[in-house]
Structure formats: structure tokens, C-alpha cells
């Protein structure tokens, strides 16, 4: 069988390194032809050597000389900047683009891949939040597939296999509830970044872990599901499943609810996207139902987690509103991580930015880029 050639964008992050674990477990199935990172040159150089990667891109151009010298005596070609990345993902040496970057920076390379009909395994949910209509429209126009890597969306995708033409009645999007699920609003208000970074079930990057603590992550995933599966936000029900064993569920007309379960390990959804339609053993821990004994379900609390409500508000308004919410949130989370903003400043900044948005009902890519830029200014103004 011909190997699937992967471009891993964001290869040094949490999803990127777990994608490489999947490749390590199945070297007969995959080869890595392109890797990129924002600024982690040392890690990137090690990966380039281990996987003998043809093209290596450092997005922060100031780090190019460093990466170049680290890979001087290797066969890898070294590139810098987002434009190089966009032209390389569209090249002949790539079959599947793994979008594992963090935040809005993933948008342009994802579009570059979809424009030439490449399959994109998408973990970078901010891309769909900010520009869902443009991203899915570009995929449709060019016959490109978007395969979900986010565990919830992978679960929905798996539940829909075999659904035929049956209409989806409801999507039950599960959430762990994050580290503050049982904390009072008063206690959450005092939460520090290190407390928010202690996720009970998942081992993830810093941005998504903070988003899990504020439940912005679940709000974004609702928007992501709206675009990936073409469902109304009104038909997406968010349910807390604290064990993170049910990764999401789909309800049909007859009342049947199909769930996908697995131990919380990102290598499962990553390997499902990369190996589709094959299921690959990547050494993920097996689900031990005897040990687990029971599963719990709770309703989310929008008083303590206001970001959830803001996400519904943004997607119902549509246009460039979700883009503004994403930009505001990226700035606010960064400020929180640096200790410059408190926990509830994040949702306060997000709400202010939504209110002050210069609304565009049917945004072009330029409108989206401008909304992102302008919203970041407003958000930064809320911090100083
Ligand atoms: Mg998720």
C-alpha cells in the first residue's frame, strides 16, 4: 500500500506530537513530508531528523537562522514564514494536511490546502470558528474533505457512519466540565492560570486547557459542529460528562442515541482521521467498564461559565461575530496566562468585543482578517 504523506502544521504542539506518535506506531502506513512550528526550533529540528522530513517550516522568520544551522548537515529543506507554508501544503508531496496549529494563525494554511483539494485533518477549531462559512465553502467547491480530529467531532463523525440518509435530530456534545466544574463562582473568580491548567482528564496544550476551564472550548466546539455537520445551533445540546468517556452522541428521529466511547486519549481521534476508514491500534488505554462502574451527566451552568452563552449568541448572530469572539478570546486567554487578567476578565473581554463589533453579515476573507485585527485592538484596550 502506498504510504499516506502527511504535512503536520504545528508539529511541536500537543496534537502535533501525538500525531507523530501515531506515525511511530504505523510507519508502514504514514510518512511525514512537511512539519511546521511557530517558534520551537529545537524540537522541530529533532523531529525533522527522526522522521527524515523533506520540508521544515518555522513560522517565526526571526528563528530561521537558528533552525537552518541546526539542520545544516541534514537532508531537510528549511523554510520560514506563513507564505512558504501555504505554498508547501499545496504541493505534490502532501496527501493529508494535519491542522494542529493554535488559534487564528491556522486559517490561511488550512485554506491553502483546501483550495487545491487536499484532505485536511483538522484539530485547529479556531479556523472553523472564525471563518466556518468560508472554510467549508472552499472545501465543498474544491472537493476537499475535512476530517475532524477534535475528539467530540470525531465521535460525531463515527456515530454518523452508517446513519445513511437519516436526519440528525440532535447532537449531544459532551464536555468534561473542566477543573472548576464543582467550584463556586466566587472561588472561580480567584482562579490562577496554574489552577486552570490542571485539567482533570485531558492532556492538552495551554490555550485549549484554559478554554476548557472557561468552557469557551465547548462553545467553540458547538460552532465547529455547526459547520462540520451542517446542524443548527438549536439542535446542539451540551451535556457535562465528567469522566470524558462518552466523546459525543447523535440522536435520530426514532429516539435512538448513538454514542462513541473510548478512554480520553487524543491518539484515538487522530489515528481515526489519518487512517480512515481503517481503525489503527496506537496503544491507547482500553476502556475498562468494570473499573469505571458508572457514568455521570450534568447540565452546564452558564452563570459560572458565561462563555458558553456568548458562543451561542455569536453563532446565532452569524457573520463575523464568531470571528470577533475568537480574536477577543485569544487575547484574553494570553493575558490570563501572563497574569495580566483574572478568570472572569476573559468572558468580560469577550462580551465587550462582541458588543463593539462592526458587524458584517456575509464576510469575505478580507472582512474576517480585518475583524480579527480590529477585535484584538479592542480586546487589548480592555486589558491595559
Ligand atoms: Mg474537544
What would you note in describing this structure?
The protein is α/β, with parallel strands linked by helices. 46% of the residues lie in helices and 15% in strands. The chain contains 17 helices and eleven strands. Strand 3 (55-58), helix 3 and strand 4 form a beta-alpha-beta unit. The longest helix has 19 residues, at 365-383. It is globular. The mean pLDDT is 97. The structure holds magnesium ion. Magnesium ion (MG) binds at residues 150-152, 221.
Number of strands: 11
Q: Strand percentage, roughly?
A: 15-25%
Summarize the amount of helix as a percent range: 40-55%
Number of helical regions:
17
Q: Ligands bound here?
A: magnesium ion
Key features of this structure:
11 strands, 15% strand, 17 helices, binds magnesium ion, alpha/beta, 46% helix, 384 residues, globular, seven-stranded parallel β-sheet
How is this structure best summarized?
The chain contains 17 helices and eleven strands.
What layout of secondary structure does this protein have?
Elements lengths: L3 E6 L4 H12 L4 E8 L3 H10 L4 E4 L5 H7 L6 E4 L1 H8 L6 E4 L7 H9 L3 E4 L2 H17 L4 E3 L2 H10 L7 E8 L9 H5 L3 H4 L9 H9 L1 H14 L6 E5 L5 E7 L4 E5 L5 H9 L13 H4 L14 H11 L3 H17 L5 H13 L9 H19 L1
Parallel strand pairs: 1-2, 1-5, 2-3, 3-4, 5-6, 6-7, 8-9
Antiparallel strand pairs: 8-10, 10-11
Bound molecules: magnesium ion.
